[in-house]
Amino acid sequence: MALINKSDLKYTYSWTAIGDDDPKKTGKPDSTLLSRNEGYEVLHFINRFAEKQSFKNKESALKTERMIKEYLPGDIRSHKNVTLWLQDNWNNY
The domain containing residue 48 runs over which residues? Predict the structure, then answer.
């Protein structure tokens, strides 16, 4: 079950996934690169990350969102590298 929903997100996103990139159709967002401005991808990524980290409260999920939107370096784009960066930098923010 998802920890957060679209209405919980604090930042503005585009919600117009195109064609095969729409996670409602595919069941997951783009498996290679995270589009940090595409709401469907960010929401799915945050919930997947929260599940892997065993987060139990929305505050941790929203911290993940804030870190992605405000602090994640622009050259870190793959889901794997975003996950690693979040884990490595969690206590810094």
Answer: 6-92
